[in-house]
C-alpha cells in the first residue's frame, strides 16, 4: 500500500495563488513515486488546478492527485451553494474529504449526512477520506475510542464492503490548527484501534484503506509520526500552504 500525504488547504488560496503554488511545488516532487500526494484546494481553484495537473501528467510519470474538500450527495437539483459528484468527475477529481471536523462542528454535519456523501462518492468513483476525531472534552472524559467507533460505524454504515475504495483520517479536534500535535503514541493508540475496527467491519478486506493522521503535522514531527505502525500517511492543514514545508513533510515521511 502506497502511503498518502494529502494537503487540505481549507479556505485558503485564490486561483492565481494555487497556480503559483503548483509551479513551485510540482517540479520538486516529480520524481517521488513511492508515495501518493494529494492537494485539495478550494472549489474555485479546482478547475485551474486540474488543467495544470493534466499538463504536468503529460510531461511524464507523476504522482500528484487532486481532491475536493467536500461535496453534496445528490447529482443535481435545487441545493443552493452545493457541489455535486458529477461536477467533480468532470474535473478529474480523485479524492473528496468528508466529515472534516470543521464541517461537523461549524456547519453541523451529522454522521447520517456524511454517510450519504460517502456512499455517493464511491458510486461516482471518487475516493472518500472519512475524517473522524474527538474533542478535548471527550478525550478528558476517557471516551475517545467510543467517539471514534461511533463516527466510523455510522459513517461507513452499508458500505463496509467498499473498504478498498475508502481512506480514513484521524484528526483529534484539539490538535487541528492549534499547534498541539498528538504524540506518536497517542496517535498510534487510536490508529491501531481504527485498523482493528475496519478489519472487523470489512471482514479482513481493509488492506487498501490508509489511516491518515491530521492535526498540526509539520516537517519537524512527520518522521516520528510516520514511524508508527498504523499511521499510513497524513492530512496536512496549515503547513501544506507553503510548498516548501509540504515538500519537507513528504521527504521526512519517506525517510522511514
Ligand atoms: O484539519 C487538518 C487537516 O484536514 C489539520 O489542520 P492543521 O494541520 O492546520 O492542524
From TrEMBL:
<dbReference type="GO" id="GO:0019563">
    <property type="term" value="P:glycerol catabolic process"/>
</dbReference>
<dbReference type="InterPro" id="IPR022896">
    <property type="entry name" value="TrioseP_Isoase_bac/euk"/>
</dbReference>
<feature type="binding site">
    <location>
        <begin position="8"/>
        <end position="10"/>
    </location>
    <ligand>
        <name>substrate</name>
    </ligand>
</feature>
<feature type="binding site">
    <location>
        <position position="216"/>
    </location>
    <ligand>
        <name>substrate</name>
    </ligand>
</feature>
<keyword id="KW-0413">Isomerase</keyword>
<dbReference type="InterPro" id="IPR035990">
    <property type="entry name" value="TIM_sf"/>
</dbReference>
<dbReference type="GO" id="GO:0004807">
    <property type="term" value="F:triose-phosphate isomerase activity"/>
</dbReference>
<feature type="active site" description="Proton acceptor">
    <location>
        <position position="171"/>
    </location>
</feature>
<keyword id="KW-0963">Cytoplasm</keyword>
<dbReference type="InterPro" id="IPR013785">
    <property type="entry name" value="Aldolase_TIM"/>
</dbReference>
<feature type="binding site">
    <location>
        <position position="177"/>
    </location>
    <ligand>
        <name>substrate</name>
    </ligand>
</feature>
<dbReference type="InterPro" id="IPR020861">
    <property type="entry name" value="Triosephosphate_isomerase_AS"/>
</dbReference>
<feature type="active site" description="Electrophile">
    <location>
        <position position="100"/>
    </location>
</feature>
<protein>
    <recommendedName>
        <fullName>Triosephosphate isomerase</fullName>
        <ecNumber>5.3.1.1</ecNumber>
    </recommendedName>
</protein>
<dbReference type="GO" id="GO:0006094">
    <property type="term" value="P:gluconeogenesis"/>
</dbReference>
<comment type="function">
    <text>Involved in the gluconeogenesis. Catalyzes stereospecifically the conversion of dihydroxyacetone phosphate (DHAP) to D-glyceraldehyde-3-phosphate (G3P).</text>
</comment>
<dbReference type="GO" id="GO:0005829">
    <property type="term" value="C:cytosol"/>
</dbReference>
<dbReference type="Pfam" id="PF00121">
    <property type="entry name" value="TIM"/>
</dbReference>
<comment type="similarity">
    <text>Belongs to the triosephosphate isomerase family.</text>
</comment>
<comment type="subunit">
    <text>Homodimer.</text>
</comment>
<keyword id="KW-0324">Glycolysis</keyword>
<keyword id="KW-0312">Gluconeogenesis</keyword>
<dbReference type="InterPro" id="IPR000652">
    <property type="entry name" value="Triosephosphate_isomerase"/>
</dbReference>
<comment type="pathway">
    <text>Carbohydrate biosynthesis; gluconeogenesis.</text>
</comment>
<comment type="pathway">
    <text>Carbohydrate degradation; glycolysis; D-glyceraldehyde 3-phosphate from glycerone phosphate: step 1/1.</text>
</comment>
<dbReference type="GO" id="GO:0046166">
    <property type="term" value="P:glyceraldehyde-3-phosphate biosynthetic process"/>
</dbReference>
<dbReference type="GO" id="GO:0006096">
    <property type="term" value="P:glycolytic process"/>
</dbReference>
Amino acid at each position: 500500500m502506497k502511503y498518502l500525504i494529502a494537503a487540505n488547504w481549507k479556505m485558503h488560496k485564490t486561483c492565481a495563488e494555487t497556480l503559483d503554488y503548483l509551479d513551485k511545488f510540482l517540479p520538486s516532487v516529480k520524481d517521488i513515486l513511492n508515495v501518493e500526494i494529494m492537494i485539495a484546494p478550494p472549489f474555485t481553484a479546482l478547475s485551474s488546478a486540474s488543467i495544470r495537473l493534466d499538463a504536468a501528467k503529460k510531461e511524464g510519470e507523476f504522482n500528484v492527485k487532486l481532491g475536493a474538500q467536500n461535496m453534496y450527495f445528490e447529482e443535481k437539483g435545487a441545493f443552493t451553494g452545493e457541489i455535486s459528484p458529477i461536477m467533480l468527475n468532470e474535473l478529474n477529481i480523485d479524492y473528496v474529504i468528508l466529515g472534516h471536523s470543521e464541517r461537523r462542528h461549524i456547519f453541523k454535519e451529522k454522521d447520517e449526512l456524511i454517510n450519504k456523501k460517502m456512499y455517493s462518492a464511491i458510486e461516482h468513483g471518487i475516493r472518500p477520506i472519512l475524517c473522524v476525531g474527538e474533542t478535548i472534552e471527550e478525550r478528558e472524559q476517557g471516551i475517545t475510542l467510543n467517539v471514534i467507533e461511533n463516527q466510523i460505524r455510522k459513517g461507513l454504515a452499508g458500505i463496509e464492503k467498499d473498504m478498498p475504495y475508502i481512506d480514513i483520517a484521524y484528526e483529534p479536534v484539539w490538535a487541528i490548527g492549534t499547534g498541539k500535535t498528538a504524540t506518536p503514541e497517542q496517535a498510534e493508540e487510536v490508529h491501531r484501534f481504527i485498523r482493528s475496527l475496519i478489519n472487523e467491519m470489512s471482514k479482513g478486506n481493509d488492506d487498501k484503506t490508509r489511516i491518515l493522521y491530521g492535526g498540526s503535522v509539520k516537517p519537524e514531527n512527520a518522521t516520528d509520526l510516520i514511524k508508527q505502525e498504523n499511521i499510513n500517511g497524513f492530512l496536512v492543514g496549515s503547513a501544506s500552504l507553503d510548498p516548501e514545508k509540504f515538500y519537507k513533510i513528504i521527504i521526512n515521511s519517506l525517510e522511514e
